[in-house]
Each structure stands twice: as C-alpha cells, then as structure tokens.
Amino acid sequence: MPMKGRFPVRRTLQYLSQGDVVFKSSVKVMTVNYNTAGELSEGARKFVFFNIPQIQYKNPWVQIMLFRNMTPSPFLRFYLDNGEQVLVDVEDKTNKEITEHVKKILGKSKETLEKEEGERKKLSHPATFGPKKYHLRECMCEIEGQVPCPAFVPLPKEMRGKYKAAMKNEA
Amino acid sequence: MSVPRGAIHAKWIVGKVIGTKMQKTAKVRVTRLVLDPYLLKFFNKRKTYFAHDPLQQCVVGDIVLLKALPERRSKHVKHELAEIVFKVGNVIDPITGKPCAGTRFLENLSDSENLTEADTTYLSEKLQELKVRSTDK
C-alpha cells in the first residue's frame, strides 16, 4: 500500500531530518519568490518542492513565505535580526546549488552543530534511569549486569520477601 | 492598569495587509508553515497582527515587513511598519530594480536610446546575417 502523492518520501521523518541547513540565530524570515513556469525558475521550483520542508523542519522558528509569479526573476530574501536583508538570486541554478549556497552564507557550520550536540549530550547522564522523557532506561532491571525483571525471570528464593520472612521467623 | 508582560516573541515578520480601516493601524495577516503531525506535511497557518502605520501608507494587499516595538503600544498593537516589501500594483523587481507585473517587466529593458555608432553598425550586421540565413532556408 504506497503513500499518497507525487514524491511521498518528502513526508517522511527520515527525509525531513536529513536536511543539513540550520540557520544562524539571527535569521528571522525567509522569503522565496519564484515562478510556476519557465526554465530559469526550474531550480527554484525544485528547491521549494524538495528542500523547503527540510529547512522548515530544522528551523521551526524561522518564518518562511512563498510568493508565486510576482516578479519575472526568482530570488530568495532573508531578513536578519539586525535589520539587514540578504538577497540571493537563484535564476538558472539547480536546487542543490541553491541549498549549498544558502548553507554557506547563512547556515551554522558543522563545528558549531557538533559543539551544540555535545553540549546537549553533557546535560543528560546516560547511566541514570528514570522516566523515558529524561533517561534512556526506565528501570534498573533493564541495565546489563543487574538483576533481571522478576516479571520475566523469577527471583531466586533467597531474594524473595516471603522466604526472608520465613527464615526470620524460624530463627 | 499596566500588567508587566513578557517580551514580544516575533521580532521581525512579513505579512500581507488585509485591512486599513483603523486610523494609523494596519491589520496584517502572517502565514507560517506548520507541520501536521500525522500527514507530515507543512500547511500555512495564518495569524493576524496589528501594526502601527503612522503615515497610513499601506493599502490592502501590500506585502509588508513588521518590526516588534520595544513595548506594546496598546492592547493589540505590538508591531510597527518597518518597510513595504511589495506595493500592490507597483511591484519592483529587486534584482533589476525595474517595475514588473507578474512574470513580465512593464518597461522595455533594452537600452535602445543610448546606442553609439559602433553598436548600431554591429547590430545591423547581425541583422543582415539573420536575414541571409532565413532566405537560405
């Protein structure tokens, strides 16, 4: 039973998380002007169709607006926090070239992303256990080398409370 | 009674003007792409903002850039008009700087008034070549 639509792979979480353009924190709005017909706008159309979902998934707080058939030439415009505007002409460029260019001028570099990833990892300790939201494992029985969960493997007699109580009563 | 409110979240936004019936205020509709959790597709979600427009220069249909005010002007007005990006009926293409409408330019792009003698001879030679080629066919 295949997914509905022309390229339904665009609607998968794996595809969305594969986007590598993460904007710097100063980018607030991204505007794409493109045309629905014409060879020069072909790259821009492919960019909007394939890459915009990836970019928006990675940058949920950047406002992205699309304008169709307003001007004869296709372009991208970024509005930064300090009032600066960046105009990117995308006439006669393929969608891959557009994403590379945008990543180079306004994307966070690989080193910054790895540093942020490392800092996020430092906050949570992988050896602790607790609620699934904050830890990897919920109960001590899930950790290798610890006593397995009595729901799956019955505890030995010596560890059970009723045996221990019986021994105490006997003594 | 002024209750201390938090800072305004949206610092810069781009939207379309939908109403100018209020004095010195423009009603602007801002669309953002929001991911539907089941379909995993992005849809436009609209929100209206009120922006302070002191010169009342906005017309319904303009695309405007709004800037957040340092503190809110009134109960609903938290932004002011920073710049009109595209004026309705008078769109200027930012790459060339010429007025355009839809996918065509309104004025002639070629530089026919400022041609020198060398240019005119070159162009007429090119025209001759084209004429010869068409007769050959």
Task: Summarize, please.
The complex is a heterodimer of chains A (171) and B (137). Chain A is of the alpha+beta class and 171 residues long.
Protein traits:
heterodimer, A: 171 residues, alpha+beta, Glutaredoxin, 2 domains, 4-stranded mixed β-sheet, 5 helices, 4 strands, 34% helix, elongated, B: 137 residues, OB fold (Dihydrolipoamide Acetyltransferase, E2P), 5-stranded mixed β-barrel, two-stranded antiparallel sheet, 1 helix, 7 strands, 15% helix
Overview of the structural elements:
- Chain A: It comes from Daphoenositta chrysoptera.
- Chain A: Keywords: Mitochondrion, Ribonucleoprotein, Ribosomal protein.
- The complex is a heterodimer of chains A (171) and B (137).
- Chain A is of the alpha+beta class and 171 residues long.
- Chain A has two domains: 8-108, Glutaredoxin (3-Layer(aba) Sandwich); 125-170, no CATH class.
- Chain A has five helices and four strands, in the order αβαβββααα.
- Chain A has helices at residues 13-17, 42-58, 95-106, 110-123, 161-170, and strands spanning 27-34, 63-68, 75-80, 85-89.
- The radius of gyration of chain A is 27 Å and the shape is elongated.
- The model of chain A has no long low-confidence stretch (mean pLDDT 92).
- In chain B, 18% of the residues are buried.
- The mean pLDDT of chain B is 88.
- Chain B has a single domain, classed as OB fold (Dihydrolipoamide Acetyltransferase, E2P) (Beta Barrel), CATH 2.40.50.
- Chain B contains one helix and seven strands.
- The chains are: A alpha+beta (171), B alpha+beta (137).
- The interface between A and B is medium-sized, with 31 and 30 residues.
Question: Strands, helices and their partners?
Answer:
The complex is a heterodimer of chains A (171) and B (137).
Chain A: H1 13-17, E1 27-34, H2 42-58, E2 63-68, E3 75-80, E4 85-89, H3 95-106, H4 110-123, H5 161-170
Parallel strand pairs in A: 1-2
Antiparallel strand pairs in A: 1-3, 3-4
Helix pairs in contact in A: 2-3
Chain B: E1 12-19, E2 25-35, E3 42-52, E4 63-68, E5 77-86, E6 100-101, E7 104-105, H1 117-136
Parallel strand pairs in B: 3-5
Antiparallel strand pairs in B: 1-2, 1-4, 2-3, 4-5, 6-7
Keywords (chain A): Mitochondrion, Ribonucleoprotein, Ribosomal protein
Family (chain A): Belongs to the mitochondrion-specific ribosomal protein mS25 family.
Subcellular location (chain A): Mitochondrion
